[in-house]
């Protein structure tokens, strides 16, 4: 994939609207996201798509990119047409000139008096014509027929079918049931573009990001949901708090284990698990820490149960 041509990466023309760029990005993200695609270069393709969308979706970054790469729309091709005013083609070279007449034979030469009489007659005719014509004939205007150029244009693609909020949400829910996280996120984004304050969808997006290990975006979704609807749920608030302070909590639990305060360390691990995290790697990490603290505290039976829970993940 050519990383220099961002328009080719998204498959759009340089004059594409922001809405067309957004639709192209979501369409390609559905099939190229590493969670969906099994291609060996899926991650690189997704990085290229993210970079192209980041630049082209920002008006200032897009103008700067177009200036740096000298991006211009091709000039339309005009087809010449033949009309009444078109210049004729063909060979119009003059043919051979007629031969000049030879000298008249001596017997054909008119008498000089006949020539003089003829000349006088012509002069009299011209005088009478000039006297009888008092009005000048006006010059007729020269009319040039207009030529309408034929411009070849590329037909526009058909307008996409508009879906409702409920249709996009149902599509996202179906993708979630199939564990197609990338496609589910794309569908939920379309639904949120119609209803930005749908707190339930914001929580669902946060859960997807949390499962994928993208805790930064997960926290952002939970924050938006809580800001839109403070009553979205205490569980969401607890999960958001745990994810935001996760590193500090894990460090504190490990220090307590090293100091021999096993009950306090186990309590921290239980608080993290009670938040309802769904990320498999994080859950294994927390359970492993809890199992170690239980073993050090001499609670081997509980440690064995935690070990079985780890194996089931």
Description:
- The chain is rod-shaped.
- Helix 6 runs antiparallel to helix 7 (181-194), helix 8 (199-212) runs antiparallel to helix 9 (215-228) and helix 9 (215-228) runs antiparallel to helix 10 (234-244).
- The chain has 313 residues and is mostly helical.
- Helix content is 60%, strand content 1%.
- The relative contact order is 0.06.
- The protein has helices spanning 6-10, 18-32, 42-56, 59-69, 112-132, 165-177, 181-194, 199-212, 215-228, 234-244, 246-258, 262-274, 280-296, 300-312, and strands at 78-79, 150-151.
- The longest helix is centred in the middle third of the chain and has 21 residues, at 112-132.
- The chain has a two-stranded antiparallel sheet with strand order 1-2.
- Among the domains are: 6-69, Helix Hairpins; 165-243, Serine Threonine Protein Phosphatase 5, Tetratricopeptide repeat (Alpha Horseshoe); 245-312, Serine Threonine Protein Phosphatase 5, Tetratricopeptide repeat (Alpha Horseshoe).
Secondary structure layout:
Elements: H1 6-10, H2 18-32, H3 42-56, H4 59-69, E1 78-79, H5 112-132, E2 150-151, H6 165-177, H7 181-194, H8 199-212, H9 215-228, H10 234-244, H11 246-258, H12 262-274, H13 280-296, H14 300-312
Antiparallel strand pairs: 1-2
Helix pairs in contact: 2-3, 2-7, 6-7, 7-8, 8-9, 9-10, 11-12, 11-13, 12-13, 13-14
């Amino acid at each position: 994939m050519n990383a220099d041509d961002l328009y080719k990466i998204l498959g759009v023309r340089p004059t594409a609207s922001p809405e067309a760029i957004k639709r192209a990005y979501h369409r390609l993200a559905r099939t190229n996201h590493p969670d969906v695609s099994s291609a060996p270069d899926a991650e690189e393709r997704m990085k290229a798509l993210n970079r192209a969308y980041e630049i082209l979706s920002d008006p200032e970054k897009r103008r700067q990119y177009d200036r740096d790469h000298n991006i211009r729309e091709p000039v339309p091709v005009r087809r010449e047409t033949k009309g009444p005013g078109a210049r004729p083609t063909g060979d119009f070279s003059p043919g051979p000139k007629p031969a000049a007449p030879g000298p008249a034979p001596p017997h054909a030469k008119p008498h000089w008096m006949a020539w003089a009489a003829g000349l006088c007659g012509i002069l009299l005719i011209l005088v009478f014509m000039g006297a009888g014509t008092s009005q000048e004939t006006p010059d007729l205007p020269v009319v040039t027929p207009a030529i309408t150029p034929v411009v070849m244009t590329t037909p526009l693609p058909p307008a996409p079918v508009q879906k409702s909020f409920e249709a996009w949400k149902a599509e996202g829910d179906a993708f979630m049931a199939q564990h197609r996280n990338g496609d589910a996120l794309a569908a939920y984004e379309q639904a949120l573009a119609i209803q930005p304050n749908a707190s339930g969808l914001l929580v669902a997006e946060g859960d997807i990001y949390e499962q994928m290990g993208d805790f930064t975006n997960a926290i952002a979704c939970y924050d938006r949901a809580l800001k839109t609807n403070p009553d979205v749920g205490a569980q969401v608030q607890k999960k958001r708090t745990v994810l935001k302070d996760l590193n500090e909590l894990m460090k504190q639990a490990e220090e307590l284990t090293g100091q021999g305060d096993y009950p306090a360390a186990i309590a921290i691990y239980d608080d993290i698990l009670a938040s309802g995290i769904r990320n498999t790697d994080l859950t294994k990490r927390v359970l492993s820490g809890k199992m170690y603290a239980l073993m050090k505290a001499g609670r081997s039976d509980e440690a064995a149960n935690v070990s079985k829970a780890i194996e089931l993940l």
